[in-house]
Amino acid sequence: MKITHDMHTHTTYSHGKHTIAEMVDQGRKIGLKAITISDHGRSHPMFGVRKRNFAKMRAEIDALNQKYDDIDIYLSVESNIIGANGDIDIKAEERKYCDYFLAGYHYGYIPASFLDIFRFAIPNYAAKVLPFLRKRVRVMNTSCYIKMMERYDIKIITHPGDKMPIDIDAVAKAAAKHGVLLEINPRHNHLSVEEIKIAMKYNGNFAINSDAHHRDALGCIGRAPEMVKAAGLPLERIVNITE
Ligand SMILES: [Zn+2]
Ligand SMILES: [Zn+2]
User: I want to staple 16 with a disulfide (CB 3.0 to 4.6 A). Which of 10, 37, 144, 153 is the partner?
Assistant: First the structure.
């Protein structure tokens, strides 16, 4: 099993180690047909892409697409989930310059509103150490994912359920309805084998991505082939691989 289009990669525009050009070079070297540059959304004060850089990234990618005819290069952003109502940090620049959007939950973002600090961000941290909070947080997070898919045109949910507990059954049902891909991300162990088994009951599709932060990790899918096999997921439901 091999990735044909690595749809989730990071560069020096967030906290990746290599430039867009270096990642694209590596992609050509390992025979990718396509690569998506998806640095972190801007509400992350440390890692987020600066607003002014979207135009620059677009120009770099357009130039590389002109230069090479053996690889297609796309611009996306791994937007942050930042509020209980499914808010993510996609604004005018992202809409203007990106080809499509990814969304995932990360630590260290600036919440969507003052209220979200207390109802969303803190409870998700606290649920790590206070088991009695987990059930309530899981209900809130599940509704958050579903609202996000209703409100935004997202192509992929990255590492679903990582760092925030969700009801994968309800999320997979909504993802199938909205045509959103669920990511199998070996770097974060989500989806897990058990989660894939639950999600595949619905007719949505999946993507396996490297989430590379270093060029040597590009196209690497770790244990994903074994996981997919263990879950019994038919390979034609994974949109970006070849056997
Ligand atoms: Zn991520
Ligand atoms: Zn990522």
Answer: 10
Cα–Cα dist 26/17, whole Å: 13
Distance 230 CA to ligand 2 centre (A): 25
Question: Taking residues 149-153, what's their average pLDDT?
Answer: 97
pLDDT at 189: 87
Distance 41 CA to ligand 1 centre (A): 10
**Tokens 């939950």, located at residue:** 105
Residue of 155, 201, 164, 163 lying closest to 182 (CA atoms): 155
Measured in whole angstroms, the distance separating CA 195 from the mean position of its chain's CA atoms is: 16
Mean pLDDT, the chain, rounded, equals 96
* Cα of 214 from ligand 2 centre, angstroms: 11
For residue 164, the domain's CATH number is 3.20.20.140
What's the domain range around 167?
2-242
Ligand 2 center–CA 173 separation, angstroms: 23
Residue 78 Cα to ligand 2 midpoint, Å, equals 6
Total domains in the fold of the chain: 1
Q: Is 196 in a helix, a strand, or coil? A: helix
150: pLDDT strictly greater than 90: yes
For the stretch 47-79, pLDDT in tens is 999 999 999 999 999 999 999 999 999 999 999
116 C-alpha vs ligand 2 centroid, how far in Å?
Answer: 23
Average the pLDDT over 158-185 and give the result.
Answer: 96
